[in-house]
Amino acid sequence: MKEEYDFSDAKRGAVIPLSTSQTEVRLRLDNDVLDWLRAGVSKTGGGSYQEMLNSILRTHIQTQEDADRKSLPYRHFRGAEGTELSDAEIVEIVARYLKDKHPGGATLEALTQGVRHEQDWWYIPVRPSFEPPRRYEYYEALADAEGELEDTEHLTVLFLPTAPTDEEIGQK
After folding, report:
1. How far apart are CA 128 and CA 82, in angstroms?
2. Does position 72 have pLDDT exceeding 60, yes or no?
3. Is 13 left (phi over 0), alpha (psi -120 to 50) or beta?
4. Distance from CA of residue 45 to its chain's centroid?
5. CA distance 3 to 12
6. Cα gap 29→137, rounded to integer Å
7. Bridge-partner residues for 110, per DSSP?
């Protein structure tokens, strides 16, 4: 060890520069939270509780963003080219959910004409191929399809029942 050192060219401050992607903040944590973070660092074999907290927060943010994307109203859903879906495309999706619904033997058709979109709701006219003998079966089928669309497609729909045309009634 030398008796005297020359610090004339020395610089004040940290020897290792801080990351420019991080900001130093003062943060108050409950004691039990801080103890938990420190114990977690100890279990993993070292590091800093700040890094662990940053990792936990980053994971939480990603989880929230994923959940938000999944729960967006359907109007934010984009087609293959990134464009909003048209009324016809929405009706096509709805038709897939109606194709297996046959209240009283009737076939249900989603109509493009008359589709409305207000706030987060799609209002879609639906016409049976003939008047079902038990109307409650018709409404149950529509309610089932609305629920399935909301659960699987995140599409909030209200079906607007319409009467079959005179032609369709005559064909029955």
Report:
1. 33
2. no
3. left
4. 37
5. 22
6. 57
7. 126
CATH topology classification for 14-71: Arc Repressor Mutant (1.10.1220)
Question: How many Cβ atoms sit within 10 Å of the Cβ of residue 84?
Answer: 13
Measure Cα distances from 79 to 22, 71, 122 in Å: 37, 17, 17
Q: What is the CATH number of domain 87-171?
A: 3.30.300.20
Look at residue 126 and give its three-state secondary structure.
strand
pLDDT tens digit string along 35-66? 998 888 888 888 888 888 888 888 888 888 77
Residues 6 or more apart whose CB falls under 8 angstroms from that of 102 comprise 108, 141
How far CA 64 is from CA of 58, 68, 92, in Å, comes to 10, 6, 30
Q: What is the pLDDT of residues 116-139, one digit of tens each?
A: 988 778 999 999 999 888 888 999
Q: How far is the C-alpha of 156 from the C-alpha of 136, rounded, in Å?
A: 21
With 50 as the cut, is the pLDDT of residue 78 above it?
no
